[in-house]
Amino acid sequence: MVLQNAFLVQTSSSSPAPKPGSMAFRKAVKGTLIGGGAVATAFGLSQFFEYRKHQARLAYVEAQGELKVPFKDALPTREEQLSTLRNTEEFDVLVVGGGATGSGCALDAVTRNLKTALVERSDFSSGTSSRSTKLIHGGVRYLQKAIMKLDYEQYMMVKEALHERANLLNIAPHLSAPLPIMLPVYKWWQLPYYWAGIKMYDLVAGSQCLKSSYVLSKSKALELFPMLKKDKLVGAIVYYDGQHNDSRMNLAIALTAARHGAAIANYTEVVHLLKKPDPKTGQEKVCGAHCRDLITGQEFDIRAKCVINATGPFTDSLRKMDNQKTANICQPSAGVHIVIPGYYSPDNMGLLDPATSDGRVIFFLPWEKMTIAGTTDTPTEVTAHPIPVEDDINFILSEVRNYLSPDVEVRRGDVLAAWSGIRPLVTDPNSKDTQSICRNHIVNVSDSGLLTIAGGKWTTYRSMAEETLDAAIKAHNLSAGPSRTVGLMLDGGQDWTPTLYIRLVQDYGLENEVAQHLAATYGGRAFEVAKIAQVTGKRWPIVGKRLVSEFPYIESEVQYAIKEYACTAIDVIARRTRLGFLNVQAADEALPRIVEIMGKELQWTEQKKKEELEAAKNFLYLEMGYKARSDQLSKTTEISLTAQEIARYKKRFYKFDKESKGFITTVDVQQVLEKLSIQIDENALHEILNEVDLNKNGQVELDEFLQLMSAVQRGQISDSRLAILMKTAEEGLDLRGPVSVDRSGGGV
């Protein structure tokens, strides 16, 4: 169900919609206000008691004084962390899983003075936690169900999420911020009902409401969101939720745990669980895990009084290590997102489509100066490498077209990146109805003592971790006090200010855009990145060599990423920076330099560098949408061009294929470019042709070129470098200056 169903009353299909100024419309508004006020009064009482409880809790945390931070300045290296994991006789808590929830559990445990360990099979935030919609939100849809069905559980779930939203924005101000989201309204009678629903969202948030929602006239809505479809628009409602850089937020949680003394290690998998008989009952109890360092292959035991399973979609894998007969509880669902150029949305205004053609909700949000759109929701199999499919990409594009002005041509070729994340929906093993999906999260303790935390949402990771540790302390008689993570600043947040970037510009000579990016990514630790930035050799900027020209990521971030436990090139392009999520072609272009820097820092052999480059390119191809783009072009077997267009493009093709071979190679293109005095690096030229070389035989055949031009004309491919380059050559540009073949936007 969606917002439309939440706040609309049932009316006869024959009844006309009330118009502004009419008696029916005024009654509708009045009825909405009265009904909303009654519900608000009931909810207000619970708000008051919750506020008193929250204040008492904050007073307790403050009374405890500052926590000790053993590694406030320099983090232990990964090797030192592994040494601690191998040589510690016994931990109090071992967390398996380095996503948001697992990292949250580690932070909650270590700040309760529990000896804490965490292992992650891949990289921190490599799964669902880096592939979200980037929102920190309470869930308007859940509030709708709470009101319509008088469901107290749903109401408390929204209330908890709104509390956690406020906390997360407070403890990581550099990585998160409030975002206004517009709900366009195309029927007059919807306006008061949508308004009532959104106002209720504000009321439930209470004192933690980010900013009050408000109604916009048609003209004001179009002023703030000029790309919006004008026809039949009657106005809009704007409400506020939070937005964040999800993988960096996840990493900040994990690094904060490490600074407080938790031993954490990525690329460390659990091979099997360790068990020993309980001296009282004789029953086998989980007492740790046998692990393998995937970088070196070394295996070792980690012993712990309590093991927490926080593996997201892989929940059942670890549960079956404990008991092979246990039933599956995870019902995975895939959500696809796409990234398109920033000009599709205003810089600081999102859009919510509450009623898509198939009943789902689509968000359309500015993010990292691009526009993110999603998500879908389809059943899927659990995999570590989910792949976005063309049908889902086209569904999102179709829904986006419904809300944007006809003047804005939404092209398939403008998709710069696409990814799929697996949402780990779960059934409650403690429930009688084990087939029904749990609407929130579940915490389960097995007969052998394995704790499982599953389900939930990104926003509530902290409260989920708190509940899990409370259960662990009770189940395993651990000596620890209450949670201390409310208000606990995350790594980089302590010294951040909105004007920090100005100091970076003034003190180090960084570009303004680069300085803003570093401040928003690393917070107070941005100075550590700036200190190791290389001199450019230019008048300005003085330091900070960019990895690619159109993004503010600089080379020193690669070096710093290794200090943040990055082990592979994928870690850098996907999770330490977000380049792979923002523009696949730009990430592909940056990869050779990233591998070169990491190779020098980590002493990789030439063979290792080659393997890293290949693995990262494969990641971009399969998981970040490049494959969908290639499939799109290869499926264009029917060349939808007129005879005149085919003749024109053949003429262009044969300007390069002088010998009428029926194909062109890099040598053919190079010869033509030399005549025009155009200088292009040989590797870059190879990449340009490889984008169009569908059968990967090292040459572009006439049919492939015609397929490309047909796809370009239909908007399936945009800004093809080969198409631009060959058009430039045909037009015979003058010899006075080089011709740029840089992407204006790219496209996958």
From TrEMBL:
Enzyme Commission no: 1.1.5.3
Keyword Hydrolase: no
Family matches, as SMART domains: EFh
Reaction it catalyzes: a quinone + sn-glycerol 3-phosphate = dihydroxyacetone phosphate + a quinol
InterPro entries xref list: DAO_C, DAO_C_sf, EF-hand-dom_pair, EF_Hand_1_Ca_BS, EF_hand_dom, FAD-dep_OxRdtase, FAD/NAD-bd_sf, G3P_DH_FAD-dep
Pfam (any one): EF-hand_7
Enzyme class at the top of the EC tree: oxidoreductase
Alphabetical UniProt keywords: Calcium, FAD, Flavoprotein, Metal-binding, Oxidoreductase, Transit peptide
Keyword set includes Transferase: no
Cofactor needs: FAD
Pathway assignment: Polyol metabolism; glycerol degradation
Leader sequence segment: none
Transmembrane segments: none
Top-rank taxon, per record: Eukaryota
Domain EF-hand: 644-679, 680-715
Role noted for this protein: Calcium-responsive mitochondrial glycerol-3-phosphate dehydrogenase which seems to be a key component of the pancreatic beta-cell glucose-sensing device.
Family note: Belongs to the FAD-dependent glycerol-3-phosphate dehydrogenase family.
Entry protein name: Glycerol-3-phosphate dehydrogenase, mitochondrial
Annotated organism of origin: Cirrhinus molitorella
